[in-house]
Amino acid sequence: MTDIPSAIDAYLQSNLNDYIQTTMRLCAQPSVSATGEGVGACAQLLAGELRQHHFQVQLCPTAGQPVILAHAQGASDRTMLFYNHYDVQPPEPLELWTTPPYAPTLRDGNLYARGAADDKGEIVARLAALDAVRAARHGELPCSITFVIEGEEETSSPHLGQVLREHQAELAAQAGIWEAGGLDSEGQAVVTLGLRGVLGVELSVKVMDRDAHSGQGHLLPNAAWRLVWALNGLKGPDQRIRIPGFYDHAKPPTPRERDLLLALPPRDELYRRNLGVKTFVREGAGAELNVAVFEPAATINGLTAGYQGPGEKTVIPARASAKLDFRLVPDQDPADILAKLRAHLDAQGFADVEIEERGSTPPAKTSAEEPFVTMVARTAAEVYGRPSLLDPIAGGSGPMHMFFEALGPVPIVFTGIQYWNNRAHSPDEHFRLQDFASGARYIARIVENFASMV
Amino acid sequence: MTDIPSAIDAYLQSNLNDYIQTTMRLCAQPSVSATGEGVGACAQLLAGELRQHHFQVQLCPTAGQPVILAHAQGASDRTMLFYNHYDVQPPEPLELWTTPPYAPTLRDGNLYARGAADDKGEIVARLAALDAVRAARHGELPCSITFVIEGEEETSSPHLGQVLREHQAELAAQAGIWEAGGLDSEGQAVVTLGLRGVLGVELSVKVMDRDAHSGQGHLLPNAAWRLVWALNGLKGPDQRIRIPGFYDHAKPPTPRERDLLLALPPRDELYRRNLGVKTFVREGAGAELNVAVFEPAATINGLTAGYQGPGEKTVIPARASAKLDFRLVPDQDPADILAKLRAHLDAQGFADVEIEERGSTPPAKTSAEEPFVTMVARTAAEVYGRPSLLDPIAGGSGPMHMFFEALGPVPIVFTGIQYWNNRAHSPDEHFRLQDFASGARYIARIVENFASMV
After folding, report:
1. What would the pLDDT profile of A60-75 be if each residue is shown by its tens digit?
2. Does B424 touch chain A if contact means CB atoms closer than 8 Å?
3. CB atoms within 10 A of CB B278
4. Of the candidates A398, A253, A267, A402, which has an alpha carbon nearest to the alpha carbon of residue A329?
5. B230 touches chain A (CB under 8 A)
6. Is B270 at the interface with chain A, CB within 8 A?
7. Among residues B152, B181, B2, B196, which one has the least CA distance to residue B82?
8. CA B173, B179, B182: angle at the middle one, nearest 5?
9. Any CB–CB contact under 8 A between B209 and chain A?
10. Is the ipTM of this complex over 0.90?
11. Which residues of A are less than 8 Å from B314 in CB distance?
12. B4-195+364-451: what fold?
């Protein structure tokens, strides 16, 4: 087996351009789950690509967009699962794109398009890796591969769980690779092991049937003030969330997880330089700020009340609302937090503040002690010259818990073709061709090493 | 002089339709100061009407819209001043008008049009009253009359003060009638004597160069939270304004003013019925709530931050802002309150919250003890069957103080053709023809009685 890695690398080097062309075809097809634009057509296009790459493909219909299940049989009885998505974020604002979002363009060694990095390039890099493994093994995969590729990741995966439950038997696997991953701001490979949970809510309050003239502000109720006071009761300037019991089930990082976080590059200078941040939410600096990801967060995403146009309009707002998300850590439960939020608002005299749940996801993570994780980290050395760093949990959220529910506690890790500035969700989204190639080389080696694990 | 009131009434009865036609001509001409639409043309149209009604007219140019000064000489050396405005609020939302805003329409005994009640109908009712007085006196006015009619009342009168100062000598008068007034919710004539002041501000805070992903909410600063905390520091759920020194110069009502407020109809039931209000800002009920107008108020007019569209977008807002107005009572001073607001935000740790002043006006009022006020109240009995009630100060604001600065402390009162539901500033703005007629009869008698005051 000594020459298999060389054969993998040779195949990828020779055929890279074909896979970039495939990525460009997929990116030229819009697939905006928020609006529905092109999503069905993209599912068909991708299903065709998967079939050409020797996968048996099912398009599983849902009340929303279809979920693609694709399976390829391998030599061993082990199966690796890949989770990806074929939908993209809306491309707006269009005027900030250097080239149009659905006209994939190669420039300066990068491929620019909506969906290039998130997540179509990742899908194709994985196909490239698997084709390279087959090529090195005379057409045979050393283990089975299952892709789960949904079309609603950007709208909180409302129908994925149902498909995973219905196809549970077909999905059995011993490890999984999450949709994306890649290099940190210092160019080192990082393998992420989990996601925080999220509880999204909209708080709204209505105090009158319509806005009134502010000349009666001494007498008439004001929805904006009530919203301000209700929000102030949720979190004060000390950043501590004031909902009783909110922190009850929040587990701190293990000593190993803490060490892993401290070994990751600090982000504070990056945020200062790229976002113009002057003051962070908590004291401290450098890598010690990385540990704060294990503290749950309450974020106001938006505020709306009354008159917001130019100049002044002396109204008393009849309605006011705020969108918030709570990022939850293991072992917090979104339903428990929602109940505590309601009870707290009631207890504080804000029974009139309505809560609309906007989607929730529990936290989920893989233990850093898993042998699969150790193997994945070590394997990076063959591609990147040193083992991957491990990130115990990312700040964001996703449907990882659904896979644990369907597959049981298999290890799932994040790796892929990303780097810190690929502008996913933003204009000029792109990946670097060099990262596509090295990401594919890494995935191919992970598959090889996974197949031979005892 | 016994038959002069009868002659006035006879003239108005015979000629009412002509004045309604004049009002309709003026209302058919848009004059939206917020956008500038038609304002100059309306000034010309109105100047022509005033000349036809025997006034000497000056159009005083300003950096904004012209101020019309119109003068008619009378028999005595006394002068009454009328303050009015020819601009209107924007007519939007157009779809809520039963007939188009600039197609004045008579329906059910009312005249519907943008500007009908606020303030073009008032201007024409005054011209009708003065013509009636002339007709009853063989063409002579018993006192001189000066109109000051501006074109920027709906945008906080930014250029009126300058014109008043420049023309101070021509404006000498012994009493004034403010732009509008009329009947309360029980159909009784009410003469208002003053206006609260206002300080309008926009508070804004920026914590980053652009919105960030809320997965970093445990680390990155959030402009919406900072705004919430800054606002909460200005007023808490007890409705007490927390700015140190805010109430220092706020004078309570005199015992007479308190009695006058208690004699006005209660508004709470009206607000419950028409606005769906369930809870008022302060305890109490009925007429005792009227007294609260002497308590200054802080009103959030609008809140803006982050994502406000449908669904969810998990962002951390980089910027947030709030529009507020403070309604001020005698003897509060907007500049003093602005300085205290800045000092308070700084002291509370919110030096990063910027304040943009959005226009301010000091409070101003006429004493209820003025002989002119007593005369005006008594005169109502001749038209409405009982004396006017007196309202010491309205909740709103306006440029009344500018007239006190220019004219000295002459009594200024509010009376006109309004009733409680004329929907000024709203779709289907209108006045009732019966109120136009009785309002004109009342003004004519006030002019008569004023001319003969010693």
Report:
1. 999 999 999 999 999 9
2. no
3. 12
4. A253
5. no
6. no
7. B181
8. 115
9. yes
10. yes
11. 198, 200, 299, 301, 325, 396
12. Aminopeptidase (3.40.630)
The fold of A4-195+365-451 is Aminopeptidase (3.40.630)
Does residue B401 belong to the interface with chain A, where contact is any CB pair within 8 Å?
no
- Residues in chain A closer than 8 A to B152 (CB atoms): none
**Between chains, do A282 and B34 touch, taking CB under 8 Å as contact?**
no
* pLDDT tens digits, A269-291: 999 999 999 999 999 999 999 99
Report pLDDT digits (tens) over B218-276.
999 999 999 999 999 999 999 999 999 999 999 999 999 999 999 999 999 999 999 99
Is B426 near chain A, with CB under 8 Å? no
Residue A295 CB neighbour total at 10 angstroms: 19
> Residues of A numbered 15-54 whose beta carbons fall under 8 angstroms of chain B's beta carbons: which are they?
34
Interface residue of B235, B279, B312 to substitute, partner A, most A CBs within 10 Å: B312
SS (H, E, C) chain B: CCCHHHHHHHHHHHHHHHHHHHHHHHHHCCCECCCCECHHHHHHHHHHHHHHCCCEEEEECCCCCCEEEEEECCCCCCEEEEEEECCECCCCCHHHCCCCCCCCEEECCEEECCCHHHHHHHHHHHHHHHHHHHHHCCCCCCCEEEEEEECCHHHCCCCHHHHHHHCCHHHCCCEEEECCCEECCCCCEEEECEECEEEEEEEEEECCCCCEEHHHCCCCCCHHHHHHHHHHCCECCCCCECCCCCCCCCCCCCHHHHHHHHHCCCCHHHHHHHHCCCCCCCCCCHHHHHHHHHCCEEEEEEEEEECCCCCCCCEECCEEEEEEEEEECCCCCHHHHHHHHHHHHHHCCCCCCEEEEEEEECCEECCCCCHHHHHHHHHHHHHHCCCCEEECCECCCCCHHHHHHHHCCCCEEECCCECCCCCCCCCCCEEEHHHHHHHHHHHHHHHHHHHCCC
- Taking an 8 Å cut-off on Cβ atoms, the answer to whether B228 and A296 are in contact is no
A-chain residues near B236 (CB < 8 A): 229
Q: Is residue A190 within 8 angstroms of chain B, CB to CB?
A: no
Tokens coding B430: 């209108």
Altogether, the residues listed in chain A come to a count of 454
The H or E element containing residue A372 is helix A371-384
Q: Which of B217, B271, B301 sits opposite A214 (nearest CB)?
A: B301
What band does A2 get if pLDDT is binned at 50, 70 and 90?
A: low
B317 shares contact with chain A (CB less than 8 Å) = yes
Q: State residue A127's pLDDT score.
A: 98
Please indicate whether, in this complex, the C-beta atoms of B232 and A232 are within 8 angstroms of each other.
yes
Q: B308 and A305: CB-CB below 8 Å?
A: no
**What DSSP letter does each residue of A402-448 carry, written as one string?**
HHHHHH-S--EEE--SB-TT--TTSTT-EEEHHHHHHHHHHHHHHHH
Q: Which residues of A touch B297 (CB under 8 A)?
A: 214, 217-218
The yes-or-no verdict on residue A260 having pLDDT over 70 is yes
Break chain A into its structural domains and give their ranges: 4-195+365-451, 197-250+295-361
Residues belonging to chain B:
454
Classify domain B197-250+295-361 at the CATH class level.
alpha beta
Residue A165's contacts (CB-CB under 8 Å, 6 or more residues apart) are: A405, A406
pTM value?
Answer: 0.92
Q: Give which of B292, B282, B313, B288 is closest to B393, Cα–Cα.
A: B292
Query: For residues B374 and B398, what is the distance between their CA atoms, to the nearest angstrom?
Result: 23
B207 vs A contacts (CB less than 8 Å): 277-279
